[in-house]
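Tutorial handout. Part one gives the primary structure; part two gives the three-dimensional structure as C-alpha cells.
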Amino acid sequence: MNFIRTDIEDVVIVEPKVFGDSRGYFVETFRADKLEEFLGYKINFCQDNESKSKKGVLRGLHYQLPPFAQTKLVRVIKGKVLDVAVDIRKGSPAFGKYVSVELSEENKRQLLVPRGFAHGFVVLEDDTIFAYKVDNYYSPENDRGILFSDEVLGIDWRLPFDELILSAKDKVQPKLFETDDIFEYGVNYYNG
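Part two.
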C-alpha cells in the first residue's frame, strides 16, 4: 500500500496495490498494521457502511461530535465520486480548507478522513457503490453537518449536472460559521 499525505497533512490518500491477470484482479483494501505504521497511532475500525447512489447525488458534509467522532476510510467499489474532507478544527492552520479526491472503481484509491473533519461526496456515475469503515458507531444524537455550498468553504464540486440530488437534511445544514458544533485543534479526540 502507498500512503500519500494531502495538502492537509492529516487527510491521507491510500493507494492499494492491485494484482491483475487474465482472471481479473486481487487487492488488499485494508491493512491495519501498514496504516498504523504510517500514521503512528492505532485506529480501531468497528463498523462498515455502504451506499448506492445515482449520478448527481450529493451526500454531506457530515460528521459526528465527540465522544462519537469518527475517522472514516472511504472507497468506491463501483462507479466514481468526487470525495471531499473539510477541516472543521477551530484553530487549525487549515480550518475551513478542504481536500477533494476522485475515487473510482478504476483507480481503487481510498481516502482517510480523520476525526475533526466534515465529509461528503458527489456521485459522478449512475449506480455508484460507496463503502467506508468508521472507528466509532453511528450516533443519531451526535450527527451534524455543514452546508455543502457554504461560500466560505468554496468547494469546487466540479459539477457536470444541472441539478443536484440532496436529502432534505443536507439542503438545510448550517454554514461553518453558523454552528458551534465543531472541533478544537490540538485536542486528542482519539483518547477522549
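Part three, for discussion. The chain has two helices and 15 strands. The chain has a mean pLDDT of 95.
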